[in-house]
Amino acid sequence: MSNNNLEASEWTVFRGTVIHSTHEEAVVPLKDAILGVRGSQIKFLSESVGGNIDDLAKEYGFNPKDVKHLKDGQFLIPGFIDTHIHAPQYVFTGTGYDLPLMEWLDKYTFPTESKFSDIKFADRAYSKAVKRTIKHGTTTACYFATLHAKAAVKLAEIIDKAGQRAFVGKVNMDQNSPKFYVEKTENSLSETKWFIEQMNERQYSRVSAVITPRFVPTCTVGLMDGLSDLAKTHNLPIQSHLCESKNEVSFVKKLHPETSYTDVYNDHGLLSERTIMAHCVYCDDKEIELLKETGTGIAHCPNSNTFLASGILDVRKLLERKVKVGLGTDVSGGYNPSILDAIRQSVGVSKLLAVDRENYSPISYQEAFRLATLGGSQVLGLEDKIGNFEVGKEFDALLIDTKCADSPFDTFNDEYADDLMDIFRSLSSLVMTATSGKFTWQVKRSSQGSNGS
Ligand SMILES: [Zn+2]
Known about the structure:
Layout: E1 11-20, E2 28-38, E3 41-47, H1 53-60, E4 68-69, E5 74-78, E6 80-86, H2 101-114, H3 119-135, E7 138-144, H4 149-162, E8 165-169, E9 171-172, H5 185-202, E10 207-209, E11 212-213, H6 221-234, E12 238-242, H7 246-255, H8 261-267, E13 275-279, H9 285-294, E14 297-300, H10 302-307, H11 315-320, E15 325-327, H12 339-355, H13 365-379, E16 396-401, H14 413-416, H15 420-429, H16 431-434, E17 441-445, E18 451-452
Parallel strand pairs: 1-4, 1-5, 6-7, 7-8, 8-10, 9-11, 12-13, 13-14, 14-15
Antiparallel strand pairs: 1-2, 2-3, 5-16, 16-17, 17-18
Helix pairs in contact: 3-4, 4-5, 5-6, 12-13
Bound molecules: zinc ion.
């Protein structure tokens, strides 16, 4: 649809409270804002409009009668971005935390992921996983699927139907994996090529392929080189894991004694401005520098880092060194598919780091909110499209209703002068109850009118 052919009726204009992040300020609350969307694109955002709706209507050509006035207690925020989630692991979320990463993979993850050779099972499981992330306000996600290319295509179909924006990766593993869940190098590459072709044929507007070597331990150098070639040929992003746990880092040291974990990826052409590396807890200063130089983004997954007892990422250090950081749920190393939970946990683990460090400034909830929105958009290379309400971006938003029926928290506007930021702060801490599924999210996109709530 060409923008020139849009009628006045294709405007969606909101008036009310809008909260988002910019590079300058972690949280910008606009109390009486007017936000104009034409088709799916944000055309204007103006603060404290007073009585000038008619002037804006004349300037932009929308009907002032159609303006949607947000109710008291409602506000708009950008959609949450999950930069790292394993869709197949949703089926065993919340179980298996008796073991650390490497043993956890062998005992729980690989047997479960191997079941996705059954396309009917994959369909059922993926449908539930995607629906659940949308319920938690994730409008964009970067998914790992499994080794099975057909099931990965199915996942992409489900996401497209649900109206979510996503990257989907067929996982690659050709060594150090169980017999029932491993590929031959050539098959791994040819199946990935087939997957990319299928995705290209389908031409989804918001769902595309991402090259997905699981991590260095399960990938030969031949496989990594082949995947790097595929990423270059098809101009695709790359996702993987890096320096998640101490045992994993020692294992990689045995496989590649001459070099650092981060260098292994770089030596095989897998670090770029379009690479997303999950965790990075144990990267040393040189490795952090390499991540910055190559433009690699980091998916910080605090829930998983805690529950697999992997470690604590020093996000402050990464932000000071200007490395791109977003938040991920890492379901099901993380037990919670909610990015709101990731916001809270990222603040919590950062405060734990501060306990034994003098003059350490833990990240604030405002900064965590920015990681979950604008930061995620940078990590996924989507900053020109989503992440905040800058003019020119797509309208990708959550309508938060703090007074909805069964709201898991109460406000006291009349008796206790809550100001907007108090309410917003409450939102950041309400994740404990948000997991009960009672909190109502409305996920709305102006184009295609897809709704998930
Ligand atoms: Zn992961």
